[in-house]
Amino acid sequence: MYPPYRFSVAPMMDCTDRHCRYFHRLLSRHALLYTEMLTAQAVVFGNADRLLKYAPEEHPLALQLGGSDPELLGRAAQLGVEAGFDEINLNAGCPSPRVRHGSFGAVLMTMPKVAGDCVEAILDVAGNIPVSVKCRIGVDDQNPEVALPEFIEAVRARGVNHIIVHARKALLSGLSPKQNRTVPPLDYDLVVRTKERFQDLVICINGGIPDLVQARKLLDRGLDGVMVGRAAYSRPLPTLLDVDELFFDSPGKRNIGEVVDEMCHYLLRQHGNGIPYHQVSRHMSGLFFGAPHARAWRRLVSEPGALSDRGVETIREAARKCLDTRPLEHAVASASAVCT
What we know:
With about 350 residues, this protein is α/β, with parallel strands linked by helices. It has 18 helices and 9 strands.
């Protein structure tokens, strides 16, 4: 059986909340899912029950933590272990102003010893729960050929054996978080060389992976896993529907109509708990990407108040209209056809 990290969906702020993860799990039974980055301070001093809440169906599920205080990270990780997460991940790659001011995220790549202290504190409480680190290839003026292996050596020395590398630099000044996902050039070759150097470690790759075709090519180069972010969120059908068969040798992809129906039941349950429809349904906005009526679908599921009092029935009707078009069938089938 293949390990879950063979294909994972990246942690994405304002995207991979528990409702998004429930939806993604309906499309893939085996992909490893991640929470949004949660700061250790928020988990320890905030409402941990709310922040760490998830549905049992979401497993396998990893908790991503942000911070640079080893004691706080250890306490937050302990709460994550008690909550039943399958992996604890330290964020050492986020370049947002928030992390710059707090000296965590990608800033940790400039402080390998601190990063080592942080993962050691997490490992001390993790027990048998895997601990991983997600990083960039470098920060600002760092030479990635030097900075990346130095950083990996620092966390490996403390006991971490699983690294996810976003194959771009993080530029902490002058670029927004969105620009940091697209402007710095990708260097997949460096990540492949890093795996060749650290054969004893699990090395997974992230960054700019547009589809399952590219994901398979990277996996075939000797990497242990691929992590896909924005493509999984904005184009979930061609990105996730064939993952189980292509990456985990597990046939039997889901019927799209059944996925919509299960999400409608989930919407009703959440609405009964006081959650507005659009807070859940917005994560389905890319479901019919590229199909006729996709724009109307996006507006319906993502705009506050767009759903009428009929709620899920409106969603079912819109989905049927999209499903009645052949272009959608071709779009969904394309990933499998090219990969096989």
